[in-house]
Specification:
Elements lengths: L2 H11 L12 E4 L8 E5 L4 H6 L4 E5 L18 H10 L2 E4 L2 H16 L12 E8 H12 L5 E3 L4 E11 L11 E5 L3 H9 L3 E4 L2 H5 L2 H9 L5 E4 L16
Parallel strand pairs: 2-3, 2-10, 3-4, 7-8, 8-9
Antiparallel strand pairs: 1-4, 5-7, 6-9
Length: 246
């Protein structure tokens, strides 16, 4: 298939026009006239992924490889080092970021993974009403997202409403009307603000909450006459503990 055909299909299921103005979803590397032999799906692009990808392929990721303006291509620096490898292997790249958050990812994680029922989501934030104890909610999050540890802010014994935004959503706290907000990348001052506003927050991890991107998109691509391969990038974080070397 031509890359343009694939791009138009992606646009039909999650319009690129929905992306935020600061985002860089869409074609990051390549040409619309390029013939694509295989499609690889991943949260991000890293060196390990590029070693697996065959020449004349397309990588579709959630996060754009190119975010900030590139004033030069220094092949010793990220992301230019990855772009160099992609150019040598004739690999194209399309990102589906904030547009896919709005149309698919947030609701999928909230309903299909965590098992909550979204009552009235905005573009980003899903909300459910119910009745959970602190321990019940923490166990659901740990089990469904595969988290070994939980970092929480302002824990409450009883929770009657839950909100979620995958990835890094703490900046959206003023739009949250719930007892507990689930999101990733919670910073110190986000925690101070949440505690002041009496909102419980649980850090569900950026990678951990968005790693389902490839699985969701794969189901849509099955109708296309081209092989799609789920080949997710690795979590860049390593979690250490005192028993690791014992």
């Amino acid at each position: 298939m031509k890359l343009l055909e694939i791009y138009n299909f992606l646009d039909s299921i999650s319009p690129f026009s929905l992306q935020e103005k600061w985002d860089n979803s869409g074609l990051n590397v390549g040409s619309f006239e390029k013939e694509i032999n295989k499609v690889y799906l991943s949260l991000d692009i890293d060196n390990e992924l590029l070693e697996q990808v065959e020449p004349n392929s397309l990588i579709i990721t959630h996060h754009p490889l190119i975010f900030a303006e590139l004033s030069s291509l220094d092949f010793s620096k990220y992301p230019s080092n990855l772009i160099q490898t992609m150019l040598k292997k004739d690999i194209a790249h399309i990102a589906m970021h904030t547009n896919f958050d709005k149309t698919h990812l947030n609701r999928y994680v909230f309903e299909d993974i965590l098992g909550f029922k979204d009552k009235n989501s905005t573009d980003y934030i899903c909300v459910a009403d119910g009745n959970w104890t602190k321990d019940e909610l923490i166990n659901i999050v740990k089990d469904k997202l595969g988290l070994e540890y939980i970092k929480a802010v302002n824990p409450k014994d009883n929770i009657k409403s839950i909100a979620l935004m995958t990835g890094s959503g703490a900046s959206m706290i003023d739009d949250v009307e719930a007892d507990c907000f689930l999101t990733g990348d919670i910073k110190y001052h986000d925690a101070i603000k949440a505690k002041s506003q009496n909102i419980m927050m649980i850090d569900i991890g950026h990678y951990e909450s968005e790693r389902f991107f490839a699985d969701i998109l794969f189901k849509h691509l099955e109708v296309l006459p081209i092989l799609a391969i789920i080949s997710n990038s690795k979590n860049p974080f390593t979690y250490l503990n005192e028993n690791m070397n014992k």
